[in-house]
Amino acid sequence: MPKTPSDRLFNLIHSLTGSEKRYFKLFAREGKGGDNKYLRLFEAIEQQTEFDEEELKQAIYGSESIESRKYSELKSYLFEWVLKSLQAYDEKTSADYRIKSMLLGVRALFRRSRYEDALYSLNKVRKIAWQYEHFTSMVEVVNWEKQIAYARTDIAFLDAELARIEREEREYLTQLDNLATYRNIFLQLLTSLRKDASMRREEQTRYIEELLEHPQLQHIDLATSHQARIYYYRILSVASYARKDYPRFYELNRALIGLMEERPDLLREDVSEYISALSNMALSCGYLQKIEELRAVLKKFKQIRPNTPDDELKIHRQYYMNKFGLSIAQGDFEEGLHALEEHQEEVQRFSDSFFRKNTFYYQYFYIYFGIGNYEQALAYLNEWLSLSGNIERKDLQSVARILNLIIHFEMGNTLLLESLIRSTQRFLQKEERMFEYERAVLQFIKASTRAVDKGEEKKAFQLLQTQLESLYDKPSERPMLDLFDIQAWVESHIRQIPFGDVVRLRQRSPA
User: Measured between alpha carbons, how far is 272 from 114 in angstroms, rounded to an integer?
Assistant: First the structure.
């Protein structure tokens, strides 16, 4: 048996939920009994916070001499045993696994010529598969019907039912094709926007517009299953976000959440898409200043029952990203700091291999910048800038360099700014187009480093303020301006009041 790396076993056990761990212990006791070294090793690993091979050997063998081969086999068998228990657990808690298990049962009955029993099981599979829109399984059901009839030489059945079977098979294959079309469009759209959400390149804009002209996106009725309708709304909502059509983004996400909540049985099976929809709803509420609705969405996050550790992580991530976003938008940076500290305490329960802190670096930076802790803000900004090899969100990579100039300006690092201006300019020129917003900030930073007194610096800020005001109505410029409230930062220097105060005052001002 091949060796199982100890850290792989350690990571697998620590990825299990509490209920999965309890299930394994019952599973292992029933399956092995007596001196169960598998269970003892499992519990020893469970209790470790950091992997320690020698401690594990001591827990299992004590003062006994240890044969390396036997210990390696013990780990390999435990790994396989944990997987078997997870499969058994999923069969009890997941319709997907239940259907697969039942179809394996049909196969076992068929091989033993228990045709009536196999047909009885198929009827049960049909009901569950139809409820959960498992069209692949439905195709398998009708194929089994044909195969059983052929094995029995049941000509009367085939004569009476073959037309119905063929019709159903075509229907299920059509449903699969319909669903695949929507899924593929969604993935193509998502891939394009994950690379660059700024829509900086004209060919990207054309590509997305062509995707949206697909015939299947012209009416909701063309999506013929619940899952396909979910993809329909997700595609249009993401496209609305890319176009900065925030009212439509809000309406589409509200419709999507309503659609999902109509089927609580499907939500119990898989909540991952619901988590994403809630996150987008929270984002749209933030853009439209629907603060009370945003708070209601945050409460919904806390009410979701996760099915997997990944669900639990997604709920945590999306809840806090939107909680931070609310604090930033409202200029309530002290509340944001409180939420950040709460989040960093909670995140300790997640393995480093599962939790990606880099998804939060931007918000960590923003909150510390908002309270005036520039040293900590710069530390997170540097972490963010070190991710430049990542192909996702080129717009964030660009704005990070602009923010780097701003924070070094705040810290008075005049000499460093000269070299940073040159490196930032080189980076932005490598992109296919430099935004006017980026050009204006670079010009301001250059002018500020040459300013001989506060009066000249204030004039440079006033010029930047005028330039920025003229850009907010330009659809091509607005996405970058929305990433950081640079107008509030400029105004805070002109009026000589804290950045957070300006953000709060702007929020309270009538539209």
Answer: 39
